[in-house]
Amino acid sequence: MSKHDYLKVLKEKGLKLTVQRRKIIETLHQLDGRMSARDIYQELQKKNPNLSLDTVYRNLRLLTEIGLVHHIPLPSGAVFELSDDGQHHHHLVCINCDKVSCIAYCPDLSGFSSYADSEGFKVLGHIFEVYGQCSECRNDNKQRIVD
Amino acid sequence: MSKHDYLKVLKEKGLKLTVQRRKIIETLHQLDGRMSARDIYQELQKKNPNLSLDTVYRNLRLLTEIGLVHHIPLPSGAVFELSDDGQHHHHLVCINCDKVSCIAYCPDLSGFSSYADSEGFKVLGHIFEVYGQCSECRNDNKQRIVD
DNA sequence: TTCTCAAATAAGAATATTACTATTTACATC
DNA sequence: GATGTAAATAGTAATATTCTTATTTGAGAA
Predict the structure, then answer these.
(1) What's the Å distance between residue B140 CA and nucleotide D9 C1'?
(2) Given 3.40.640.10, 1.10.10.10, 3.40.140.10, 3.40.190.10, which CATH number is that of A1-84?
């Protein structure tokens, strides 16, 4: 998704295109990685010392709600990434080194949603993250055992 | 799982049966609901004013790691519940009123885990929570629209 | 029972995240 | 372009969670 498309989506949702909001998206877009709220705050504060940390958190929450941004809870704290396509996906997270990989698997809730709906509960979304140990950290562990 | 069983599991894991640890489990057991770290802290502080809030957080994290306790992230903050059987399960959470129901569905990661393992990644666990709107909150919304 | 020591705690500092409120701003309408 | 208004921001306070370190304690060994 291009930078322009993000701004279009915001407009479609009736949200204002504030400078701060644009900058947050641009930062995530340009640095093209996963950043914490504080990372983004520190980056943007270089140009705008008046920026409020709350504004970063508030917008990240908003952008997450409308699906433009993914919130990834890591053992060491939350990071955020831009959504490529407006669709969500899930992650494989190493509990040792915090490395994150995207995965294609998504729990199939279609059957469950119908059931829940018949019980009056409207399913609106889900969070799903897989935790484990990456190959590098596994190798490190083996080496340590040998030592 | 009885109170005694929890203490047995702790012992098996080589963890100390501290007074604070026992009290945290007993509180979750007796009040038999879902409580925030602060709820538990405030309850236990009545009897032990020296109790540290950090101790509550630290033990809830530990108990969650070994599977005796479930951590449930709600929009308004995290709550904890004792695990009935040492097995995990997932929840349906109303984003309006924070009501929580347990659900039987659990994402099937067996195939994915084998694949991940062949790539060097050892899957150790996952988090999964379903969000939506409960029947009561849906009805409230309808009424508001009619008004 | 006493001793020993790693594990756990208390206390407080540090960090993360959210809430509150007065002021500012995007943007639709004129 | 000027104006009205609701949404968004800055600044700050409040709350949630984690970290650091000196002290205490559970539990095994003597």
Answers:
(1) 32
(2) 1.10.10.10
DSSP E strands in chain B: the ranges are: 69-74, 77-82, 90-94, 100-103, 122-133
Residues 6+ apart with CB under 8 A from B23: B44, B47, B48
| Fold for the domain defined by B1-86 | Arc Repressor Mutant, subunit A (1.10.10)
Give the torsion sign (CA, B103, B108, B112, B117): positive
Q: How far is the CA of B76 from the C1' of C11 (A)?
A: 28
| A62 pLDDT more than 90 | yes
At residue B41, the 3 state secondary structure works out as: helix
Q: Give B-chain residues touching A110 at CB under 8 angstroms.
A: none
- Report the residue of A114, A121, A131, A136 to disrupt the B interface, i.e. the one with the largest count of B CBs within 10 Å: A121
What residue ranges do the domains of chain A occupy? 1-84, 89-147
* CATH architecture assignment, domain A89-147: 2-Layer Sandwich (3.30)
Q: Would you state the pLDDT for residue B142?
A: 59
Output the pTM of the full model: 0.91
* Model confidence band, residue A143 (pLDDT cutoffs 50, 70, 90): low
Q: How confident is the model at residue A147 (pLDDT cuts 50, 70, 90)?
A: very low
Question: Which bases of chain C are contacted by protein, using any atom under 7 A from a CB?
Answer: 7-13, 16-20, 25-27
B37 three-state secondary structure: helix
Helix (H) / strand (E) containing B112: helix B110-118
Sequential pLDDT tens for chain B (147 residues): 777 789 899 999 999 999 999 999 999 998 878 999 999 999 999 999 999 999 999 999 999 999 999 999 998 899 999 998 878 999 999 998 999 999 999 999 999 999 999 999 999 999 999 999 999 998 876 555 443
